[in-house]
C-alpha cells in the first residue's frame, strides 16, 4: 500500500482528496494535517510515502514544511494548489518538492501522481514543465563543481541529458540501445552523483546549469 498524508487547512478539501485516493486499492490515507507544523509532526510519526501539501496554510506554510521535510530526507512531497503562479511553482521546486499539480486537475491525474512519486520519480504537468524549461534556461549556471558533474561517466552524462529532456527510461533505452534495467541503474547513479532526489530535481538542475536548452 502507498501511504499518503494530506496537508491542507480546508477540511472539505482534505475530505475530497481522501475520497478520491481511498477508492484505489493500492493507496491508503494515513493522516491529515491542517498546517505545516502538523504535517511535519505527522510525517515523522506516520512515515508516509507521499505528502499532498497545500502551499498557503496558517502558521507554517506548505513551502517551509516541504523545505524541512526534504532536508531530513522525508517522504516525497506533491504540491497541490489552486494558484497557477510561477513564484509558487519555482519556490516549491527549490524547496525540494517532487511534483506540482493544480487542485483542478483530474482525479486520475492525482492518483497517477501519487503512484509516480511513491515509485521514486518526479512529476510535473506538461504545461508546467514548459514553464520550468523556459525559466531555468535563462538562469546563470551555478558552480558546476558543486554538483559533481565531473563524476558522471560519458554514458551517465548521455543519460542525464536525455532524462532532463523528459525522456522515459524506455525512450532512453531505445535512444542509447541499452536494456531498460541498465538504464534504471544509470539513472540511479546519475541522481546519486548530482545530489538530486528524483527526476524532477534532476531536470531543474540540468536547466539551471545549462546542460540542456529548450529545443534540444
UniProtKB/TrEMBL annotation:
<keyword id="KW-0238">DNA-binding</keyword>
<dbReference type="InterPro" id="IPR058245">
    <property type="entry name" value="NreC/VraR/RcsB-like_REC"/>
</dbReference>
<dbReference type="InterPro" id="IPR001789">
    <property type="entry name" value="Sig_transdc_resp-reg_receiver"/>
</dbReference>
<keyword id="KW-0597">Phosphoprotein</keyword>
<dbReference type="GO" id="GO:0006355">
    <property type="term" value="P:regulation of DNA-templated transcription"/>
</dbReference>
<dbReference type="InterPro" id="IPR039420">
    <property type="entry name" value="WalR-like"/>
</dbReference>
<dbReference type="InterPro" id="IPR000792">
    <property type="entry name" value="Tscrpt_reg_LuxR_C"/>
</dbReference>
<feature type="domain" description="Response regulatory">
    <location>
        <begin position="3"/>
        <end position="118"/>
    </location>
</feature>
<dbReference type="GO" id="GO:0003677">
    <property type="term" value="F:DNA binding"/>
</dbReference>
<feature type="modified residue" description="4-aspartylphosphate">
    <location>
        <position position="54"/>
    </location>
</feature>
<protein>
    <submittedName>
        <fullName>DNA-binding response regulator</fullName>
    </submittedName>
</protein>
<feature type="domain" description="HTH luxR-type">
    <location>
        <begin position="145"/>
        <end position="210"/>
    </location>
</feature>
<dbReference type="GO" id="GO:0000160">
    <property type="term" value="P:phosphorelay signal transduction system"/>
</dbReference>
<dbReference type="Pfam" id="PF00196">
    <property type="entry name" value="GerE"/>
</dbReference>
<dbReference type="InterPro" id="IPR016032">
    <property type="entry name" value="Sig_transdc_resp-reg_C-effctor"/>
</dbReference>
<dbReference type="InterPro" id="IPR011006">
    <property type="entry name" value="CheY-like_superfamily"/>
</dbReference>
<dbReference type="Pfam" id="PF00072">
    <property type="entry name" value="Response_reg"/>
</dbReference>
<keyword id="KW-0805">Transcription regulation</keyword>
<keyword id="KW-0804">Transcription</keyword>
Amino acid at each position: 500500500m502507498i501511504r499518503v498524508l494530506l496537508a491542507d487547512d480546508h477540511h472539505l478539501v482534505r475530505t475530497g482528496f481522501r475520497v478520491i485516493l481511498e477508492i484505489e486499492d493500492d493507496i491508503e490515507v494515513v493522516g491529515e494535517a491542517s498546517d505545516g507544523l502538523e504535517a511535519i509532526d505527522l510525517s515523522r510519526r506516520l512515515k508516509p510515502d507521499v505528502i499532498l501539501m497545500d502551499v498557503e496554510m496558517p502558521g507554517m506554510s506548505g513551502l517551509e514544511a516541504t523545505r524541512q521535510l526534504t532536508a531530513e530526507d522525508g517522504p516525497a512531497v506533491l504540491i497541490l494548489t489552486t494558484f497557477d503562479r510561477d513564484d509558487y511553482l519555482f519556490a516549491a521546486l527549490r524547496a525540494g518538492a517532487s511534483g506540482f499539480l493544480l487542485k483542478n486537475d483530474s482525479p486520475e491525474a492525482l492518483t497517477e501522481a501519487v503512484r509516480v512519486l511513491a515509485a521514486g520519480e518526479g512529476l510535473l504537468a506538461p504545461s508546467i514543465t514548459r514553464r520550468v524549461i523556459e525559466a531555468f534556461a535563462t538562469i546563470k549556471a551555478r558552480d558546476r563543481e558543486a554538483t559533481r558533474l565531473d563524476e558522471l561517466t560519458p554514458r551517465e552524462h548521455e543519460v542525464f541529458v536525455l532524462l532532463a529532456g523528459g525522456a522515459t527510461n524506455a525512450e532512453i533505452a531505445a535512444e542509447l540501445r541499452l536494456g531498460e534495467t541498465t538504464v534504471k541503474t544509470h539513472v540511479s547513479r546519475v541522481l546519486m552523483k548530482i545530489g538530486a532526489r528524483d527526476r524532477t530535481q534532476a531536470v531543474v538542475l540540468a536547466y539551471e546549469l545549462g546542460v540542456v536548452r529548450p529545443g534540444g
